[in-house]
Amino acid sequence: MQRSKQSSLARMMGYADGHRALTILGCALSAVAAVLGLVPYVCVYLVARDVLAVFPDITAASGLGRWGWLAVIFAVANIVVYFAALMCTHVAAFRTARNIRYAAMSHVLTLPLGFFTGNQSGRLRKLIDDNAGLTEDLLAHKLPDLTAALVTPVAAVVMLFLFDWRMGLLCLLTMAAALGCMMAMMGGKNAGFFHRYQQEIERMSGEAVEYVRGIPVVKMFQQTVYSFKAFYNAIKDYSDLASQYAMSCRSGQTGFLTCINGAFALLIPAALLIASGGDVERTAVNFIFYTLFAPACGAMINRIMYMSEAVMQADEAMGRLDEILSERPLPEARSPQRPKGAQVAFSHVSFTYPGAERPALDDVSFTVEPGQVVALVGPSGGGKTTAASLIPRFWDVDSGSVCVGGVDVREMDSAALMEQVAFVFQDTRLFKESVLENIRAARPAATREQVLEAARAAQCEDILKKLPKGLDTAVGTKGIYLSGGENQRIALARAILKDAPIVVLDEATAFADPENEHQIQRAFETLVKGKTVLMIAHRLSTVQHADSILVLKEGRIAEEGTHEQLLAAGGVYADMWADYQRSAQWKVGKEALA
After folding, report:
1. Do 352 and 360 contact (CB within 8 A), yes or no?
2. Are 543 and 397 contacting, i.e. CB atoms less than 8 angstroms apart?
3. What angle do CA 8, 11, 13 make, to 5 degrees?
4. In which order are the strands placed within the sheet that holds 399-404?
5. How far is the C-alpha of 340 from the C-alpha of 412, rounded, in Å?
6. Angle between helices 280-325 and 39-54 in degrees, nearest 10
7. What are the φ and ψ backbone dihedral angles of 331, each rounded to 5 degrees?
8. Which residues contact 80 (CB under 8 A, 6 or more apart)?
């Protein structure tokens, strides 16, 4: 709650640590530079005064060189001081953005694994990196400019009334009118535009990625972008939003530009009226000054408008980062307990995903003893993966308990719990590192010989033989791409190297061809030997030799028993087995049509 009460700028400065003073110094220098930048206009006034005083004998004006050099000195001083200001703010901005990224990533590492199943890595990268980049731009450029934009009008108002209050008042009125037009343009229904704009950009980017991935299908079936309605609708919605915003700003922008550039039109009749009073020379000098200075005042107002946009960007960036920072990690046990053995026991477990209407698991109880293989099967959405994910605490149960070695997983240290479980996912992820480092990720202190032994146990020898550098071959970008089944065997080598007493296999043969599946099944024999194994499978042939099979349907255990017992019962599993057998015998071609 405290986070929402603070302004975005204050929260950003909270990440600056020891560089906050550098940011303040940079802003102060920017303000000084802005004031220095106004002095050359005074020099122009003095030059015009001296020239008109001796006109037409301009050579008699003795102070022109002095005023000219003074203008140059202050202009150079403006550049030097502003450069120093940006150096300060850039150094502070880089450190602050780094601290924001570090804080966000550190927080992400404390979140439960279930958080990552619902958030794509690309989206998380965008939320953290892109929004930290927005804060960097604000602190490095926009904040010192904002300080200058706030200080300059004060100095400008003083200068407007310094020489002729009547002409100064006219310029001030145009500035106030322009500011009013700007506030009207950026307020009202347009106030939340940037938030909607960021949402549409994020949506369009996500759909674009999916479209690019589907280009082979588009080409194969000669379809157009209209076939990908989600992408097309995202583009259209973004276009409509941008067009609506542009049209809504039409009147305000027109008024803004008219007021900014209208000062000159007002100054001419004002100068003529004032000159009619008799002091033509002084009026002419003042007219020259205000004619040159009025556009500079307009530029100040224009800068304020862009600064307002920068503040909205900062608000949006911090709001997006809050989507991650507001996520709470699972509570750690105050007095962690060590498990006694590797038994896994579910006792009346119920769990509902956030935002879901019905529970994913409803009063589920079962036990997996050490050395036993228990398989979870059933229709999609039955709760199989959910049940497996509760063991390493991807989420915490709503009611009931999940125990490992007789200890509730909520009463265990999270690191100690992860040491007990080796999880082989359906969707295997390999790092863009060597095969050696990918396998050694399970046990960083493992020797090369131990990694090789695990790779052999996972039936990876044929993979290593065909790789140009064997274990040292890089995987992914700038390296070798492996098939789904080969990736799965590398993941199994990780699990074997970890040598955890509990193994969870989530559809580990999902993307394997028959040859790879055979190799994976051989690797399973090494991986599960003497372990507590919970296996999720859709290919029923992989679970028919399990010690026990649980059929999950709509979050409940519908049936339980061995393969033979469940077939004899003639229930859900028997129907699934019959369907599986028919699918295995399915053929394409004339034989299937006969």
Report:
1. yes
2. no
3. 110
4. 361-368, 344-351, 399-404, 407-408
5. 12
6. 170
7. -65, 140
8. none
Query: Model confidence over 373-394: pLDDT tens digits?
Result: 999 998 888 888 889 889 988 8
Q: Report which of 501, 496, 500 is spatially closest to residue 372, judged by C-alpha positions.
A: 501
Task: List alpha helices for 111-142, DSSP H.
Answer: 113-117, 121-125, 131-137
Indicate the residue type of 138.
L
Q: What are the phi and psi torsion angles at 410 (to 5°)?
A: -75, -15
- Identify any residues that bridge with 474 across adjacent strands, giving them in sequence order: 434
pLDDT of the residue at 2: 43
Beta carbons within 10 angstroms of residue 497's beta carbon: 22
Q: How far apart are CA 63 and CA 46, in angstroms?
A: 9
Backbone angles phi, psi at 554, to 5 degrees: 55, 40
Measured CA to CA, the distance from residue 551 to residue 125 in angstroms comes to 38
CA atoms of 537 and 377, how far apart (whole Å): 6
Distance between CA 585 and CA 594 in Å, rounded?
Answer: 14
506: tokens are 């989530």
Place of tokens 């307002």: 308
User: How many residues in total does the chain contain?
Assistant: 594
How many other CB atoms are found less than 10 A from the CB of residue 496?
A: 26
- Judged by phi (left if over 0) then psi (alpha if -120 to 50, else beta), residue 400 lies in left
Long-range contacts, 163-169 (Cβ 8 Å, 24+): 163/45, 163/285, 163/286, 163/289, 163/290, 164/274, 164/283, 164/286, 164/290, 166/270, 166/274, 167/267, 167/270, 167/271, 167/274, 167/286, 167/287, 167/290, 168/290
What pLDDT is stored for residue 361 in this prediction?
93
Nearest-angstrom CA–CA distance, 37 and 397: 64
d(CA 6, CA 12): 10
Contact 423, 506 (CB under 8 A): yes
What lies within 8 Å, CB to CB, of 3 at 6+ separation is 11, 322, 325, 326
How far apart are the C-alpha atoms of 438 and 162, rounded to whole Å?
Answer: 72
* 109 burial type by CB count under 10 A (0-12 exposed, 13-18 middle, 19+ buried): exposed
C-alpha 116 chain-centroid distance: 13
pLDDT tens for residues 554-593?
A: 999 999 999 999 999 988 899 888 887 877 666 555 454 4
Q: Which two tokens stand for residue 514?
A: 């028959």
Interval 487-540: pLDDT, tens: 888 888 888 888 889 988 877 555 555 666 667 777 777 777 888 989 887 778
Sign of the torsion formed by the C-alpha atoms of 349, 354, 357 and 360: negative
Segment 60-105, tens digit of pLDDT: 667 778 888 888 998 899 899 999 998 998 888 888 888 888 888 7
The answer to whether 353 touches 112, Cβ cutoff 8 Å, is no
